[in-house]
Structure formats: C-alpha cells, structure tokens
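thread: overnight batch results

M.L. [08:02]
morning all. the overnight job finished for the chain we discussed friday. pasting input first so we're all looking at the same thing
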Amino acid sequence: MFYCEIISGLWVSDIEIMNHKNFIIDKDITLILNCTQIIEFPEIEIEKIRLPFPPKDNNENIIILKKNYKQIIDILHNHLDHHNILISCYDGISISILIVAIYLLHHSNIHKKSINEILLKKSSKFLLWCDLDLFIDKVE
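M.L. [08:03]
and the structure it wrote out:
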C-alpha cells in the first residue's frame, strides 16, 4: 500500500487504499478521485468521482488528461480549501501525481522546472512521465 500527502489535505495513493476505510476516515478524506476504470470505491459516504484512466501510462492517458485537465484541476481547486482529497490511481505514483503536478503548475507559484524536484522530495517513487508543457495553454 502506498500513500503520500503532497500538500496539506491533498493525498495520492495506489488502489490498495480503497480497501482501507480507516485511512479515509482518519485522514478526514471527503472527496476521492478514483483514476481507474474498474476499481471500486470504498463503501463510505463521501463525494466520489471516477476518472477512467487505463492501467498503463501511455498516449491514451495523455489524450484523456489533455482533454480533461482543466475540469480536473478546477475540481481540486474548488474543493481543496474545505475538503481533504485523495487521488488514487493504479500504482499511486503516475496518473495521480501527474494530476497533482498539473494542479501545482496552474495554482501555485512553483516554477514548472521545480515541480518534479519538489514531488520527488515527497517520494522518490513518483513518475512524471510526460512534459508539463502539454498542459500549458498557448495564451499563458
């Protein structure tokens, strides 16, 4: 089981965490973004959103994320002040952390070149497997 708090109230994890309701209760998680196609949510009364990414880090995941990243980071931005959020993907170190990196790119003062370094200080397991430039609009 892998989990890590990236910033206050924003957690990433692997799918195994879905079997640990006590973790969700103990960390006061009130929103789960489940970045899998088939893994069930825990049976607990909180807000749940499925982001149906395939299990492999590939071009399909990039296409899905590129198409939807603004809505996803808006969800994070609109909930993070009042909710603890868990972003769970198959391994806890790829899609979930890429979503966090995109969120930080758009909603922090951290330069994009520093985001990977900061995340790797949280866990050396994290994989930023694509260029964050893909998630910067040309007008920015």
